[in-house]
Design a protein that fits this description.
The protein has 8 helices and 7 strands. The chain has helices spanning 14-28, 58-73, 92-106, 122-136, 155-159, 172-180, 183-193, 198-211, and strands spanning 5-9, 33-37, 76-79, 110-114, 145-149, 164-167, 213-218. It is of the alpha/beta class.
Length: 223
């Protein structure tokens, strides 16, 4: 059993869309989880549906949403302080050193992050690369295991079958509850799923089918 888990993604809501089911399973086993969030998603295009934010207020709103989602998931979070949509321009070694210092403080046995080059968004790829490098900089004897999440289209064709697949159907309601805390980003989805109309029910079923599996690759260090 893991002793402590750290999830490292770049945006508020990545933890909910990407790994809320896995996080819930871990917490149900009594394992502490901390989310290291790279940015506040201040460059996100969604300002609410209908709009209730602007470029000045959006980061404050998104941090509040993040806090609420983490409360739902019963996890801690820390902000890494990077700027949304610019992480690919950060020095990888500097980011790795920053992340390494936090990991050495928390002392996780498992880290979950994005798989570089297979995570669609440049921020996803950048923080995945920096996190993997951070662990590489640690003493071999004390390195936590790293699970890397690929989400780009056709990743299985290039990387093969994931090493870990969790069917999170049993805890999907908790995952959806966490996602819905990110109202500025998920407002349209909330409206679509609301009510008991046949269309709403079918939309929710289709979304659950797409999002009910969380898959990861165990990162292999060859040094």
């Amino acid at each position: 059993m893991e002793k402590n888990v750290v999830v490292v993604y770049p945006h508020p809501d990545d933890e909910s869309f990407g790994a809320a089911g896995t996080i819930t399973k871990l917490r149900n086993e009594g394992i502490p989880v901390t989310y290291l969030c790279g940015t506040l998603g201040e460059m996100g295009r969604n300002m609410g549906t209908p709009p209730f934010a602007n470029r000045e207020t959006l980061p404050l709103i998104r941090e509040k949403e993040l806090a609420n989602a983490c409360k739902v998931l019963d996890i801690d979070y820390r902000l890494l302080g990077y700027r949304d949509k610019t992480m690919e321009y950060e020095d990888v070694q500097e980011m790795a050193g920053h992340i390494k210092g936090i990991l050495e403080d928390i002392k996780p046995t498992l880290i979950i992050t994005h798989y570089p080059d297979y995570a669609v968004h440049p921020d996803h790829n950048a923080i995945g690369a920096a996190t993997i490098e951070a662990v590489k900089l640690m003493d071999k004897e004390s390195r936590p295991e790293v699970w890397a999440q690929a989400i780009s289209k056709g990743f299985v064709d290039e990387l093969g079958s994931p090493d870990i697949t969790y069917d999170v159907t049993e805890v999907f309601d908790k995952k959806l509850e966490a996602i819905f805390e990110h109202k500025s980003q998920a407002g349209g989805m909330i409206n679509t799923f609301s009510g008991e109309t046949p269309d709403a029910i079918e939309e929710k079923k289709a979304f659950q089918k797409r999002m009910s599996k969380e898959q990861f690759y165990i990162w292999e260090y060859n040094d």
